[in-house]
Amino acid sequence: MTSGREDFVVEYPGQRLDQFLADRLPHLSRSHLKKLIGQGAVLVSGRPVAADRRLRAGDAVAVEYPRPEWTPALGTLADWVLHEDGKLLVLDKPAGLLMHPLGTSWLAAPEAALSEPEPNLAGILLRERPGIVAAGTPRCGIVHRLDRFTSGVLLVAKTPAASEALIREFKSRRVAKTYRAVVRGQWRERRASVEAPVGRKPGHRQVVATPYGKEASTGFVVIEAGASGALVEALPLTGRTHQIRVHLNLLGHPVMGDLEFDRPGTGEALPPRLMLHAYRIEFAHPGTGHAARFTARIPKDMRDFWASCR
Questions:
Q1: CA 156 to CA 141: how far, in whole Å?
Q2: Hey, which residues are catalytic here?
Q3: What pTM, to 2 d.p., does this model score?
């Protein structure tokens, strides 16, 4: 089954298939087009061919956007809904769910999100809530993001106006976000705060505390402390990528399961994934302007792991 199809007729001979498609589908990246061709989703006169196939005048080129049968290992969209109305969808994102495909093809052509072999939220929204994209809402309604292995509360705009309103809220820092994390090490103070720029050093991929980064500020409150770990609440005042993880590492308390920063010693607890959860979010509702607040309960794997650490 496919999510859509586009058909073309070749007028002039001699052009390579990949170049032909790039000219007619400029919103799709070259790498994504080659992926479609490699998957057999592009047919020339009814047959799949190689990307370097030279086309003949009169060839019929069909592009079918695959719709993979994603397995429900992480549940379904219905399982994640905390709230829904005409303007807003509030989800409890499971850990392990990708937000969207890599690259930018899906931004101009949302159907590209459905051709990925692995489930991603953009594709799931396109499939389960097609009205969001049909209304012209950018990014399939995604107005902010969580790392793949971070669970928790997430906002999705259902209309262009709601998207604009929520993005304004985030940019003006009027959205209050609260996270919960299980961190390594013995935490002696009940409260702490970090103000340190976060970003990437030139030529590096990893996000760290660096003067090359953007200003970032996070407050922390210890909920419960153990001998070698703690359950903490993080209150980011800015919204930089990986900010909470970087700032906790600066304090010497990396999030357990953080592949970038956590270095457990021999015999120390090994979590099943990144122990970070978006717990609560507070903002002005894009439809009413009234204060709205939603909480996503800490998931069982995180609760069980912290219980084993206490």
A1: 5
A2: 147
A3: 0.80
